[in-house]
Every structure is written in structure tokens, then in C-alpha cells.
Amino acid sequence: MGRLTGDEDMDRETRGRLLGRLAALLGQSARRAGAAGLARGRWLGDLLVEVGPHIPIRDIGTLQAHHRGLMGEELADRLVKTAGNATTAVGAAGGALAAVQFAAPPLLLTAPAQLAAETLVVAAIEVKMIAELHEVYGVQVHGTGTARGAAFVTSWARQRGINPLEAGSLTSALGTAAKTALRKRMLRTFGRTMGTMGPLLTGAAAGAALNRSATRALGTKIRNDLRASTGGPPPLPRG
């Protein structure tokens, strides 16, 4: 997960191999959750909540150093672009992995775990993007790692920025409404990753395009929300 959600430049084969390893690790848990657990989104949501506190979030100084001194809107642009590239690469790698599975039908039994792995990685990349956009716009989210992780996961699920002054926004446990929103969002993302299961390499193209579009749209929503809460520049145009 650390390598798949980072900024490391890797080829499709390496990314696909890492996705395959993650899918193998999730396989047994997916079988225990069963079709009903997958269909309700609870299992996927619980996985993201567990992963959330462990997603490496860079502070503003580290971000500026990594991106050669970029600041403000230019830095935010770069973060959204980088996240979009990362989820695009995950979709492409997942599609390539699925193409191999179509060539070996028995491996199709691993498809649910592969889709779960893709879903989890895409969600984690977007959660990281959201957390680092908060850094760029000066919205400090303090608290324990668990509380911060839960807050950013909730922000991802609701597609809204975090207001640290809002009661209950930084608790380590998600409330009922947040859990419901998280399950729905995970199911939408899971549905998006199903496009990678197309035959040959059609899935790779579909997964890449869908992920890129969705990640960029999410970045725009979060940035507009953070601008509104901090009195920043006018909202970005939609699209």
C-alpha cells in the first residue's frame, strides 16, 4: 500500500504485481466477508478506515521541497495532477492484470479480491490527496493519527473539506451518517474499478480514464470547499 499510494515512478508490470500481492492478501478476508458484505460496502469501508491512519501525509514544508518550491494554487494543481496520474496508473495496471486473468479462466476466481485491492488503493490515493490539499490551503487538522485518518476518510466519503471547528469532526470513530456515506462512496469506487475487468486491454484503458476523471473531479470539489472555508480565490470551473 505504501508503494502504491506514493509518488514512486514504476512501470505497469511492477504496479500490477503489487496489486496482485495486495489482492492475494485481501482474498481470505473477502471470502469471509462474502458477497453480501461486498454488496453493502461495509467490508470495503472498514478496510479504508483501518488503512487511513497509515497513509503517509506530507506537511506543507515537505510538499514544497518535494515539488521544487511550488506554493498555493500551483502546488494544489500539482497534487491533483499527481493523484490523477497515480489512480490512472492503478486502473491501467488493474486492467492489464485482468487481461492476464482472462487468458487463464481459473484465475477469474480472484477477480473480487483484485477489484477490492484496486478500490482500496484508489481510495487511499485520493484520501492522501485530500489530506495534502488541506495542508496547502492552511487548514490544519490536529489530533491523533487515528483521529486524523478518520477525519480525512470522512472527507473523502462526503467529498467535502474538513472544518476542525465542527463538533465531532476529529473523533477516532465514524458516526452513523459518516459510515453510511463511506459505504456508498466505496461502492461507487468499486463499481468504477469493475471497468478494468474488460477483455484484452480494453479494461486497462477504461480503468485509467475513469479513475483520472473521477480523481480530478474530486480534487476540484475539495479545493472549492477549502477556498470557501478559508476565503481563498474564486472556485475552480467544473469539468
Automatic annotation (TrEMBL):
Recorded superkingdom: Bacteria
Protein name: EcsC family protein
Organism: Actinomadura decatromicini
